[in-house]
Amino acid sequence: MSEELDLTKFEHRLEIRQTEHKDIDEIIRLQSVCFPGMEPWKREHLESHLEIFPEGQFCAELNGEIIGSCSSLIINFDEYDDRHTWSDITDDGYITNHNPDGYNLYGIEVMVHPKYRKMKVGYRLYEERKELARRLNLKSIIIGGRIPNYHQYADEMRPREYVEQVRLHKIYDPVLSFQLLNEFTLMRINPNYLEDDLASRKYATLMEWNNVDYHPQTKRFYKTAHPVRICVVQYMMRKITSFEDFASQVEYFVDVAADAESDFAVFPEIMTTQLMSFLNEKSPSQAVRKVTEFTEPYIQLFTTLAVRYNINIIGGSHFVKEEDENIYNIAYLFRRDGTIEKQYKLHITPNERKWWGISAGDEVNVFDTDCGKISMLICYDIEFPELARIATDKGANIIFTPFCTEDRQGYLRVRYCSQARAVENQVYTVIAGTVGNLPQTENMDIQYAQSAIFAPSDFEFARDGIVGETNANIEMVLIGDVDLEILRRQRLSGTVRQLKDRRKDLYQVKYNG
C-alpha cells in the first residue's frame, strides 16, 4: 500500500473573526497597501473602535496573516446631514458618536489585500456585517462608497453619469460594482466625502442594504426623554459617639432620596472622617488608619441601603488600607442590584499627603448603571480636565464629584472646574460636599460647601447651566432631574458641539491607563 498523502500541506485556513488589539499593527500596514496615497488609520483610531464597539470590527485572517478588515458603528442616520462627510459620520475616525440604540449600521471602511481580491474576502466581510445587522435587529446597513475609477472619466462625465454607467455594467468600478452585486442600492452621491480620496475626486456613493428581517421596536421610535433623578446630600459633619450614629444619619438621607424616587443618592468625599470624632486619636496619621478599620462596616452599610431602598448610591469616599499597606481615598458606587464598583482618587492634594499620607490611584473608570454610564472624579481630580475628557470618551454621561473643602476658595475651584467640565464635554456634572465642623478632630475641623448639579450650556438645558444648587453651608438635600436624551441630541446637533468639533488633527488626550 502506498504512503498516505499528507493533505495538511494543501490546506489554507481562512477565518472571518472579530478584530482584536493584537491585530492593530497589521491592519495599519494593510491599509497602506490597499490605499496608497491615503492617510492610514492611527493606532488610537482602532483602539477607540475596539473600546466603543468591538462587535462591529471584523478582520479576515488567512494562515495567520490579516488580509482584510472592516470597521463600522451604529447611528440613527436621520440625525445626520444629507451631505455629511466621512469625518462627520465617524467623529474623525474615533466613532465616539456610536449609538447602541440606533437603527443603522454604518460601514466606514472595508479593505482587502490586492493579492487576495479573487477569494471573495470582501464578500465574506460584507456577509458578516449583514449577519451583525440581523442579530442586533438593525434597520439597514449604510456605507459611503468610494468610486476609485472615476478619475479616469472625470473629464468626460459627471459623477451621477459615471455611477449610472457602472450600474448598467458599461463601466467597471472595483468598489461600486462590488457593492451593487451585494444588494446595496444607491441613495445619493456626496461631494467632499473623503478629503484624501483623489481617485474618487472626493465623491462617495451613499449606499444602503435593507434588513428584511428587521422588526420595529416601538419603544425606540417614541423615546422623547430619558430622565434621571439625582439626590445630592450636603452632609453635616457633627460629633457622633459610634458607627451606629453614622449609619443612622446616612440611612435618613437615603430614605429621603428614595421617597423622592431618585435614581442616585450622592454623598460627599471622606464623609467617614466623621468617625474620628469618637476615636480619641490626636495624631491625624493614626486617626486615618483607625478610620480604615471601618471599611467593611461602611461597605456593608451602603450595599444594604442601596438594595433595601432600591437606589444607586455614590457613597462619598472612604479611606481604605490595602494589602500594600498604603491608604487610598476611594469613591464607591453601590448599585441597587447589590453590585459594587470603586474609583481611586488620582491626584492627592498636598494636605492629604502631609497629614494622612494618602497614595494615588492610577485608573480612570466608567461604570454601567441602569441609568447609563457614569464616572466618579473625587474632589481635586475634577480640576484636571484630561480626566473628564477621558471619562467622556469612555462613554460617561454623568460625572459625580464628591468633595470636601474647608474654605470658599477651595470650594470654588471644585465648582468652577465642574461647571467647565460640563460645558467642555457636554456631560452632566454633580458635586456633593460636607458642611459643619468637628472641633476636636485635627485637620477636619471646618468645612465649606454648596452642592450642585450642572448641565451643558445650551437652549434645551437648565438656565445658566445649573440644574439646581443647595444653600451654602447648610445641611440639606438637592433633588434634580437630568435628561440623557436631551444630552444625546445636543451632542449631535446643539448650538455648539465640543465633542464633535475637536481638532484631533492638532491635539488629543492620550490615556496611558
UniProtKB/TrEMBL annotation:
<dbReference type="InterPro" id="IPR016181">
    <property type="entry name" value="Acyl_CoA_acyltransferase"/>
</dbReference>
<dbReference type="InterPro" id="IPR000182">
    <property type="entry name" value="GNAT_dom"/>
</dbReference>
<keyword id="KW-0378">Hydrolase</keyword>
<dbReference type="InterPro" id="IPR003010">
    <property type="entry name" value="C-N_Hydrolase"/>
</dbReference>
<dbReference type="Pfam" id="PF00583">
    <property type="entry name" value="Acetyltransf_1"/>
</dbReference>
<dbReference type="GO" id="GO:0016747">
    <property type="term" value="F:acyltransferase activity, transferring groups other than amino-acyl groups"/>
</dbReference>
<dbReference type="InterPro" id="IPR036526">
    <property type="entry name" value="C-N_Hydrolase_sf"/>
</dbReference>
<feature type="domain" description="N-acetyltransferase">
    <location>
        <begin position="14"/>
        <end position="173"/>
    </location>
</feature>
<protein>
    <submittedName>
        <fullName>Carbon-nitrogen hydrolase</fullName>
    </submittedName>
</protein>
<feature type="domain" description="CN hydrolase">
    <location>
        <begin position="228"/>
        <end position="484"/>
    </location>
</feature>
<dbReference type="Pfam" id="PF00795">
    <property type="entry name" value="CN_hydrolase"/>
</dbReference>
<dbReference type="GO" id="GO:0016787">
    <property type="term" value="F:hydrolase activity"/>
</dbReference>
